[in-house]
């Protein structure tokens, strides 16, 4: 049975001291989490180690927001897989739309990061999703297919058990405009079918596919009842203790 992954992407928010306070509150408030729910937070790099020390021994997992595709060396400003692993990072968000669109990361580059993360034993959360203009021209499936196929190039069936896909329609991110449960389910079902085509039925049915884009306490329940929605990747609403805890304890 697939689990739900409820993940907070803190983006470029919370200085290390505030991040630690916030993590302490989360640990206090999330002592009991259902067995079928995985909770993860992805602080900025500077807060990773502090948060790691606080959530150790709790049910909250640690994620990073990016990774470099090289092993080590002269890559000023970059962070390697080993650096993340050394401080207890388990998941890494790769190909977020903000990285695709603000920092021009393309599918080929994202693919290299996915391969590097998997080869080091990190669990990539591969983000895919269409722009509003692409949805309006009916190109959602074409765009998502291309992203999934190219970003998973060279990923083996065995490695797929460690990978998560997050469907994040770009028009829903930080806009307050959430996809309807039906819109999200349609794309999630499409992605699962595509994974079956690329791998096999078991790989597809075991894959966690998160939805991301303006997920809030008042819309998560309607999203999570959909068959192919296996959790949420949350930005804004993950930055408040009450709202993140409510998201983790969504009503099934
Ligand atoms: P919001 O929840 O703020 O829309 O952000 C979604 C997101 O980008 C998560 O990665």
How is this structure best described in words?
By secondary structure, the chain is an alpha/beta fold. It has a single domain, classed as Alpha-Beta Barrel (TIM Barrel), CATH 3.20.20. Helix content is 42%, strand content 16%. The protein has 11 helices and 8 strands. α1 packs parallel to α2. The model has no long low-confidence stretch (mean pLDDT 97). It binds 1,3-dihydroxyacetonephosphate. 1,3-dihydroxyacetonephosphate is lined by residues 9, 96, 168, 173-174, 212-215, 233-237.
Unreliable residue stretches: none
Instruction: Supply the CATH architecture.
Output: Alpha-Beta Barrel
What is the N-to-C order of secondary-structure elements (H for helix, E for strand)? EHEHEHEHHEHHEHHEHEH
Q: Please count the beta strands (DSSP E, at least 2 residues each).
A: 8
Here the CATH topology equals TIM Barrel
For the CA atoms, what is the radius of gyration? 17 Å
What kind of sheet is the major sheet? 8 strands, parallel, barrel
What is the typical, i.e. mean, pLDDT? 97
* CATH C-level: Alpha Beta
* N- to C-terminal distance: 15 Å
Beta percentage is 15-25%
CATH superfamily: Aldolase class I
Helix-strand makeup class: alpha/beta
What is the total domain count? 1
Neighbour order of strands in the largest sheet = 1-2-3-4-5-6-7-8
What is the 3D form? globular
The molecules bound to the chains, other than polymers, are: 1,3-dihydroxyacetonephosphate
